[in-house]
Give the backbone structure.
Amino acid sequence: METKISEIADGIYRLSTYVPDIAPPAGFTFNQFLVLGDEPLMFHTGLRRMFSLNLAALRRIIPPERLRWIAFGHFEADECGAMNEWLAVAPHATPAHGHTGCMVSLSDFADRAPRELHDGELIELGGKRVRFIDTPHTPHGWDAGVLHEETTATLMCGDLFTQLGDGCAPREGDVVGPAIAAEDLFRYSSLNPGMGATIRGLSRLAPRTLALMHGPAFSGDGAAALNALADDYDRRVSGEMRALLAGEAA
Ligand SMILES: [Fe+2]
Ligand SMILES: [Fe+2]
């Protein structure tokens, strides 16, 4: 395996590792995002077993000691499994996550006290600024949230829009169809009645780049893509509800 680096927006780098053995023949990517600034931030830590790959990739951009923030979308091995390994090589870095995640997991798991972010809270990185937005249970995880970098309108959307394959970044085109196909395959989302509204709410950010954790970065009309994804989840949730009610009536 190798970790490829690409700049997906001004000063935002994607560190991408392709694993052909997951969902073959298409395979699957795991992506971390480095946001440069006076206080560089990394979104996602990657799996522990990928730490050495990701560390070597990051060193090609900045020394790890410069990292000041380590953030992620929800508490899961690919999102934050290597957090403590990163904290060990980045002595000035602070983990940052939403209130729920800090309360439930990071207060115990993190080797360094986290900064607890409230919904809509901003971290000034110096030259860049990121806003944390709570998206509970969307696509999964009580503690789920996304990070929006405002100077470049880049939405680091975690597992939203997950798709298969080893695409280059960034690219235009259809980001919704492949996400629907991956949801059909993996069933990875916690379908819930508020899901469509949560995703539709993100469209108000009008992102120009969607930084997918699994898949190529998307460049284009992020609001339209988010609204279309929200529509698909509304359809799924109402379909599940209809099936449930039909089962009860039978
Ligand atoms: Fe996840
Ligand atoms: Fe993930």
